[in-house]
Q: What sequence folds into this?
C-alpha cells in the first residue's frame, strides 16, 4: 500500500537529525503501547504455548515442548475433546455464515443501487441499524425470538414444521443455526455498505453503453457490476473469514452460565475455539494457560493460512 | 442508471427491500413495545405498547436492580478514555507518516499493517495475565490502553490527512512553527471530519466490545456487555420486561450516535473497506 504522502514528501528536505528525532517522538506513544500490549503478548503467547504455564503452580514454569499441542489434538482428555468439538463447530459455522451473509448483502446492494436519492438512503440507513447494535444486544434479542415457548420466530417456524419441539439453543445443529442467524442479521449491514460503495464507484457510462446495445438488467449485473466489484468482494470475503473464525460474543452470551464447563451448551453444541481458550484460563487445570496459548497459536495459524490462501488465489487470477 | 423498468420489476425489487427493512427494524420496535406493556401481556405477541407506566417502572428497575446505571457510567468511562487516547496517538502517527520522511518509516508502517492481521483474540490470554500482573486490571486505564492501539484508526485518519495540502505544513514551518505546534495548531483543527469519523466508529466498537472488557474487569468496573450477558444467563431469575428494558437502555448510546452522526459512520465503514 503506497500512500500519497510518499510522493509529496520528497519536497520536504530530508536532512536534520533533529527532525528525525521529532518524528520518532510523535510515533513513540503509539508504538510504546503497540509493543507493550500487542507485540510482546503475541510473542509471549507463542513461547508460553510450549510450557506448562498455569494459574496455580508456584514452582515456576517449565518448558514442555509440544506437549500442549499433542494433548489438545490427540489425547482425548476433557479439554482435548472440547477443543476438537469447537473446531468441528467452527468448520460448520464459518462457510455457511459467510455464504449466506455475503449473498444476502450482495443481493441487497445490487437491488438498492437500482434506486437513487431518498429511497436509496432510507434503505441504506435501515439496513445498517443491526450492525450498529452491539453483539450482546443482538444475541439478547434473538435469544428471546428463538425461545421455543415464547419466541416469536421459533414459535412461527415451529408452526410450519421447522424445529417443532426443539430447544434451539441446546440442540445439535440448531444451536449453530442460531449463531448463523444472529451473525447474518448483524453483519449484513456492514457488508452491504461496503459492497454498495463499490457498486456506486462504477462509472454510469458502462451501463449507458450496454443499454444502447440492448442489455437487460441481469446481463448488466452479470457482465458489468460483478466483475468490477471483484476486489471489494475479495475484501469482504477475507474480512468475513477473519471475523467468523474468532466468533465468541454470540455463542458465549447465548450459553452464559456461572458454571464455566456449561458455557457452550450441553454436549458443546455451541462451543467455539475462543470460548474454549477463555475456559482454559479459569478452569485451573495444570498447564491451563499454556493450553490456552496453544489454542491461540493454532487459531492464529488457521487465520493466517486462510488469509494467505485467499491472497494467493487472487494473485493468480490477476 | 436503469431507467426503463416495468412496474412489475419495480414491485419485486421494492418487495425484497421492504422485507429486509422489516427484519432489521422490527425487533427493536418489538423490544420497545414489549417493555412498555402490562405484565399480563403475552411476551411473544405484544406488538403495541399498552402500559406506559409499567414500562417506566421496568426501566427504573433495570437502572437500579439491573445494574444498568453503574454499567453505563463504567462503560462510558473507559470508552471515552480509550477514544481520547486513541485519537491522539493515532493522529500523531498519521501526521508523521503523511508529512515526513524518516528512516525505518516502511518498517513502522509494516508493523501497523501487521497489527491489523492479528486480531486481539490471538494474544488476549498473555495480555490479560500481563495486565493483571502489573496491577491495572479492573481500572479504566487497564481496559483502555490495549484498545487504544488501533491500526484501523490510523488508516482512516491517514486518508483524511492526505487530503490536506502539504503547503499548510510547509508554510507553518517557514513561519517558524515547531514540529508539534504545527500539529496542534494547524493540523488538529483541520482534521475535524477525520476525528469525528474515527471517534464515532470506535465508539460503536468499544461500546460493544465484550471479550476484553469482561476478562479484565468485574468488581469496580462493570462493562455493559458483562451486565447484559449476566442478565441473559439462566442462573438467576430476572423479570423478562426488566431484561428487555435493560437491553433497550444498553442500545441507546450507539443508536443516538448513529442517528446524529450517520453520515460519518457510513463514511468510516466505507473507508475501512476500501483501505483494508
A:
Amino acid at each position: 500500500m503506497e500512500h500519497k504522502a510518499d510522493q509529496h514528501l520528497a519536497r520536504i528536505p530530508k536532512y536534520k537529525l533533529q527532525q528525525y528525532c521529532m518524528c520518532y517522538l510523535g510515533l513513540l506513544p503509539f508504538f510504546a503501547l503497540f509493543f507493550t500490549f500487542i507485540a510482546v503478548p503475541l510473542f509471549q503467547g507463542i513461547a508460553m504455548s510450549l510450557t506448562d504455564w498455569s494459574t496455580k503452580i508456584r514452582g515456576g514454569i517449565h518448558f514442555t515442548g509440544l506437549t500442549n499441542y499433542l494433548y489438545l489434538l490427540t489425547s482425548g482428555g476433557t479439554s482435548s475433546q472440547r477443543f476438537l468439538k469447537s473446531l468441528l463447530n467452527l468448520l460448520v459455522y464459518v462457510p455457511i455464515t459467510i455464504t449466506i451473509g455475503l449473498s444476502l448483502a450482495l443481493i441487497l446492494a445490487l437491488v438498492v443501487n437500482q434506486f437513487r436519492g431518498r429511497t436509496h438512503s432510507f434503505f441504506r440507513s435501515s439496513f445498517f441499524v443491526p450492525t450498529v447494535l452491539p453483539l450482546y444486544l443482538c444475541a439478547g434479542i434473538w435469544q428471546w425470538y428463538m425461545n421455543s415457548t415464547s419466541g416469536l420466530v421459533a414459535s412461527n417456524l415451529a408452526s410450519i414444521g421447522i424445529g417443532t419441539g426443539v430447544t434451539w439453543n441446546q440442540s445439535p445443529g440448531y444451536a449453530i443455526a442460531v449463531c448463523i442467524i444472529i451473525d447474518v442479521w448483524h453483519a449484513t449491514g456492514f457488508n452491504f455498505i461496503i459492497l454498495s460503495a463499490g457498486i456506486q464507484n462504477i462509472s454510469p457510462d458502462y451501463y449507458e453503453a450496454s443499454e444502447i446495445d440492448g442489455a437487460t438488467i441481469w446481463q448488466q449485473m452479470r457482465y458489468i457490476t460483478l466483475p468490477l466489484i471483484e476486489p471489494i468482494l475479495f475484501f469482504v470475503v477475507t474480512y468475513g473469514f477473519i471475523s467468523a473464525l474468532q466468533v465468541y460474543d454470540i455463542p458465549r452470551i447465548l450459553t452464559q452460565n456461572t458454571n464455566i464447563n456449561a458455557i457452550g451448551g450441553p454436549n458443546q453444541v455451541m462451543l467455539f475455539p475462543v470460548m474454549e481458550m477463555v475456559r482454559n484460563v479459569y478452569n485451573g487445570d495444570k498447564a491451563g494457560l499454556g493450553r490456552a496459548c496453544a489454542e491461540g497459536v493454532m487459531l492464529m495459524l488457521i487465520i493466517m493460512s486462510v488469509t494467505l490462501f485467499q491472497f494467493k488465489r487472487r494473485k493468480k487470477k490477476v | 442508471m436503469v431507467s426503463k423498468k416495468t412496474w412489475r420489476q419495480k414491485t419485486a425489487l421494492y418487495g425484497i427491500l421492504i422485507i429486509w427493512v422489516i427484519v432489521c427494524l422490527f425487533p427493536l420496535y418489538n423490544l420497545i413495545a414489549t417493555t412498555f406493556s402490562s405484565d399480563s401481556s403475552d411476551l411473544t405477541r405484544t406488538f403495541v405498547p399498552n402500559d406506559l407506566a409499567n414500562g417506566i417502572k421496568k426501566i427504573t428497575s433495570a437502572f437500579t436492580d439491573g445494574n444498568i446505571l453503574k454499567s453505563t457510567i463504567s462503560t462510558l468511562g473507559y470508552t471515552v478514555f480509550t477514544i481520547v487516547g486513541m485519537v491522539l496517538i493515532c493522529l500523531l502517527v498519521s501526521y508523521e507518516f503523511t508529512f515526513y520522511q524518516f528512516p525505518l518509516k516502511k518498517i513502522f508502517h509494516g508493523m501497523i499493517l501487521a497489527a491489523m492481521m492479528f486480531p486481539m483474540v490471538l494474544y488476549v490470554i498473555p495480555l490479560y495475565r500481563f495486565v493483571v500482573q502489573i496491577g491495572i486490571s479492573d481500572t479504566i486505564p487497564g481496559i483502555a490502553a490495549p484498545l487504544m492501539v488501533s491500526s484501523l484508526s490510523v488508516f482512516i485518519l491517514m486518508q483524511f490527512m492526505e487530503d490536506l495540502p502539504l503547503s499548510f505544513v510547509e508554510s507553518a514551518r517557514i513561519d517558524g512553527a515547531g514540529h508539534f505546534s504545527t500539529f496542534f495548531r494547524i493540523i488538529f483543527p483541520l482534521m475535524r471530519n477525520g476525528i469525528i469519523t474515527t471517534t464515532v466508529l470506535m465508539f460503536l466498537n468499544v461500546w460493544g466490545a465484550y471479550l476484553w472488557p469482561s476478562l479484565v474487569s468485574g468488581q469496580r468496573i462493570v462493562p455493559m456487555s458483562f451486565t447484559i450477558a449476566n442478565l441473559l444467563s439462566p442462573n438467576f431469575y430476572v423479570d423478562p420486561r426488566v431484561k428487555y428494558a435493560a437491553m433497550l437502555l444498553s442500545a441507546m448510546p450507539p443508536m443516538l450516535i448513529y442517528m446524529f452522526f450517520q453520515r460519518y459512520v457510513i463514511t468510516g465503514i466505507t473507508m475501512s473497506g476500501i483501505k483494508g
